[in-house]
Amino acid sequence: MSMANPTLFALLCILSLFLLAFFVHADSHFEGFEAEDDDLEDSSIDPASLRSPPLSDPTPLSDPTPEPPASDLPKSPPAATTTFDFWDDEEFEGVPIEHTTPDPPSDPKSPENATAPQTPPTANPPRSFTVEIVCGSFLVMFAVNYFTGKRENENIALSWAAQFAAKDSTFEKNFSLLGIGDGGDDAPLLLKEGQTTFKFYASGRRYCQGLLATLELKSRHDLIARMYNMVVPCRDEIAFEVYMNDDAMDHVVFAMAKKKAAKAMHKDVRDLQRFASLLSPPTARKWVVDDLAVISESKEVAADLVTDAVIDQVFGDKAFEKFGKGLISLHFSDQHPGIHKKVLLFKFVLPAAKNMADMTRLVALVPYYIDLIGRYKLSSQARSKTEAARQKAALEAQKELRNAQQEAVQRRKAEKKKMMEEAEAKLSAESIRKKEAKERTRQMKKAMPRMKMARGA
Q1: The pLDDT of residue 130
Q2: Which DSSP category does 42 fall into?
């Protein structure tokens, strides 16, 4: 028993120590109780999670619990969110609860941070002014081209006027009044109607009422049009319109142009299509170059207008390449559609300003044909044919006029009927019934025989 008592006593002591350690460790998890032995504190509990929530008093409370000693055991990672397992709701009432979520510390060795490389912030690229520079350059080029092109067109027009409308020139010798106004020394020769259109007037010559020359130049002042003309070339042109007196021009329908243009004129121009036809070159006399085609009402008219002088000076094989290549068309007609019936039309290509003298012989054709056609008389046989053709054309014109008038009347009737139908569609059923009854009554009165009443003697 003496040996058993010490053994029993030792077992009881060890059991008591284990029970004491168990109770101490269990009581340290409740608020207000601290562990009596620091060695029994669990290292997995974060002291930061045992802080009390903020109170209404802003004064911070000191933590009486001393920091635990450093331990060689690995610490567990901190909780992702702040826990309030030790918060007693019954002890503090009315105090707002702040739920703060502290950012978890980043571990550079974690796989998330290892796979996502950190890119440095990129600076904004410098602003590009390419569009502004291009637009500004285009506007500057457009303005410069406008003034230079305008000046170039004016130089061409003034060069033509100085060559053919100045003192001792072709028109000054053949017309008594040049330019606009009263014809004084200070009167301008040219009338500018646009940046590409210039006009010249002349009058005071026998056989004609006057002459109008229109210079149609390229749109050199327009940068876009100039670029377009580089792809699709065009040329400067001048057109002369001579208005003949009614008694100074016989029955003449005549035209001459290059073959392709002549075919288009014969197809499109009304008087040429109705009265004239394309002529084949004669074999018994000299004729124009093969590049040109003649359209005439008769061979007699063509032979009388295409004289030897014209062939030798302008339209012959030797002279055409040098003096006649600027020809576009000639068109003489006493049946011209428009205000003036008897008209001579000339169209030429304008050369450059420094080469304006190259078209001298072409311009000389204008007064030449005024005198030639003013003196020209058809033979009796040719006149009878032309008069018959004009009478036939007049009858056809009257027929076309009547047909047009009848079509206009039918069109007006159809429009009136359509308007009445639309108006009837908008009427009510009662209005339609009354209208039908009225129409029926009118038809019955119209069908009844008329009776005359006579008084007895």
Answers
A1: 86
A2: -
Residues 22-51: pLDDT tens digits? 554 544 444 444 444 444 444 444 444 444
Question: Which stretch, 152-156, 165-169, 222-226, has highest mean pLDDT?
Answer: 152-156
> Which residues lie closer than 8 Å to 126 by C-beta, 6 or more apart?
none
| Cα–Cα distance for residue pair 352/159, rounded to 1 Å | 9
Nearest Cα residue to 63 out of 71, 74, 52: 52
Q: How far is CA 56 from CA 48, 87, 92, in A?
A: 20, 16, 10
Q: For the purposes of burial, counting CB atoms within 10 Å of the CB of 116, is it exposed (0-12), middle (13-18) or buried (19 or more)?
A: exposed
Confidence band of 430 (pLDDT split at 50, 70, 90): confident
The answer to whether residues 343 and 333 touch, using CB atoms and an 8 Å cutoff, is: yes
Asked if 273 contacts 258 with a C-beta cutoff of 8 angstroms, the reply is no
Nearest CA to 299 among 245, 329, 254? 254
Rounded to whole angstroms, the Cα distance separating 335 from 333 reads 5
Backbone dihedral angles phi then psi of residue 211, each to the nearest 5 degrees: -135, 140
Please give the Cα distance from 291 to 302 (Å, whole number).
17
Give the DSSP H/E element, type plus range, for residue 148.
Answer: helix 130-164
Q: Are 277 and 314 in contact (CB under 8 A)?
A: no
* Token digits of residue 82: 């702040």
Q: Above 90 in pLDDT, residue 454?
A: no
Distance, CA of 105 to chain centre: 64
For 223-234, the pLDDT digits (tens) are 898 889 889 889
Structure tokens at 278: 């394309």
User: The whole model's pTM is what?
Assistant: 0.63
- Give ∠ CA 103-107-108 in degrees, rounded to 5: 130
Among the listed residues 250, 259, 368, 359, the one whose alpha carbon sits nearest the alpha carbon of residue 309? 368
pLDDT band for position 398 (cuts 50, 70, 90): confident
Task: Pick 55 or 100 by higher pLDDT.
Answer: 100
